[in-house]
Each structure stands twice: as C-alpha cells, then as structure tokens.
Design brief:
Blueprint lengths: L2 E7 L6 H11 L4 E6 L6 H7 L3 E4 L6 H14 L4 E4 L11 H5 L7 E5 L11 H18 L11 E3 L1 H9 L6 H11 L4 E5 L14 H27 L1
Parallel strand pairs: 1-2, 1-4, 2-3, 5-7
Antiparallel strand pairs: 4-6, 5-6
Length: about 230
C-alpha cells in the first residue's frame, strides 16, 4: 500500500520534528505530509527540514479546511491509505501498525482511547463531551463508538476521495463519522494510546467545551437529516 501520514499543524515548532522522527522510525516506508495552517512560527521550516512534504495554507483556515486540503493532495497523488495524526505529539507512532492492520477490511479505522483501558486521562468537561458524542453518534449510526472525537484515523481510498470532496469545517471528527456511515462506509475502532501534551496547551477551555458541545450537536443532527435525504433521493 502507498501510505501517507497527514499532520495538520498550527504553531507546533516545538513538537513537529519529534513527531516526524517517530513516524520515520515506526513507518519508514510511509510519506509524511504536514499541512501548515498559516503558522507564524518555524513549523513549516522544521517540518521540511525533518523530511516531510509541506503544504502551506495562506492563512489560518482551521482544522476542516486544512484536512480537506491534505486529502485533496493525497487523492491527486494516488495514495491508498492516509493516516491523520496530531502535531503535538499526543498520538503514538508506534500504534500506526494497529490502524493499518484493519484498513484492508474497512474504509476508516479510528484509534480509540476508550475501547480498552489505556493510560489516557482527561479533564471532567472533556470526558463528559467525549462520552456524550459517543452516545449520540452511536444512536444515529446504529453502530457502537467509544471515541468519536479521536483525531487519530486511517482512511482508505474510498474515504480519501469522499473527504477530498467534502469535509466538515469546525470540529469535524464527530460529524465526519455520521457522514461516512450514511454513505455505507465500513468503520471500526482499535485501541490506541494518547500521551500528555509535551508542549503548548490546548485551546479548548471549559467555556469553549460547552460551546463546542452545543454547536457540534446541532451540526451532527442537521447532517444526519441531510445525508438521509440525499440517500432517499
């Protein structure tokens, strides 16, 4: 398989080299694509110096636009599998083979922190949000999910082409699962570790967590209705 690792990055100069180096050790045959989302620091320079392919967005467009740009590049370059990883070092490159082992039989493989017991610990509000969205998406899709907010995912060719054409804009991980299941994609979760952030800090505050829950819930419900109507047509 022709595999690429997509890393959306915004001002991650302190962690990006280590992330790339870990991937190179774990998956030496895979290409690494860093989509630099208008960083004001040396993220793009360091990523290129470390051996990654770098796409530079002209300004900060957010995770949705950044990831869709990555998938468009991946589609056009003919990759068979694209794995999304965070640039902050929280995802373990050593878990990449676990995701890839399932991709031949599925369209999307999600690295879950909760499918089995792991060392991951979260804040109370974030834990509530993760649990809430897992219940909501499981009910809408009639398929059990434990970690719908995970940004550690492997996509096969069908999903690469779908994401290149459409990718949710804000906090897309949750909505994209509903989108795929409504389009008859095969999804599965595998166990994955998530490490504490080593540099920087999360932009999600308690207030933003509450706003996020309301906004994404409405978006997911609207999407579920919209995708159902499209299928009916």
């Amino acid at each position: 398989m022709k595999v690429v690792i997509i890393i959306p990055a915004y001002n991650e100069e302190l962690s990006i080299r280590k992330v790339i180096n870990e991937i190179q050790v774990a998956m030496p045959a895979a290409d690494i694509l860093v989509v630099n989302d208008g960083s004001s620091d040396r993220t793009a320079f360091i990523a290129k110096e470390a051996g990654a392919i770098v796409l530079n967005m002209p300004f900060n467009v957010g995770i949705g636009g950044t990831m869709q740009t990555g998938y468009m590049y991946v589609r056009d370059e003919g990759y068979d599998v694209a794995v999304q990883m965070d640039a902050d070092g929280q995802h373990a490159a050593a878990d990449l083979p676990l995701l890839l082992a399932k991709i031949s039989d599925h369209d999307l493989v999600i690295g879950s922190r909760f499918l089995e017991t792991t060392a991951y610990q979260s804040t109370f509000m974030r834990s509530v949000g993760i649990r809430f969205f897992s219940i909501l998406v499981s009910a809408l899709t009639r398929q059990p999910f434990t970690d719908t907010t995970s940004g550690f995912r492997a996509a096969g060719r069908k999903v690469i082409e779908m994401y290149a054409d459409y990718y949710p804009i804000d906090y897309p991980e949750v909505e994209s699962i509903v989108y795929l299941t409504r389009n008859h994609c095969r999804l599965v979760e595998v166990r994955a570790e998530m490490r504490p952030r080593e540099t920087g800090r999360s932009s999600i505050t308690p207030l933003k967590s509450a706003y996020y829950m309301v906004k994404v819930t409405l978006s997911v419900l609207i999407s579920a209705v919209r995708f159902r109507e499209v299928r009916a047509e």
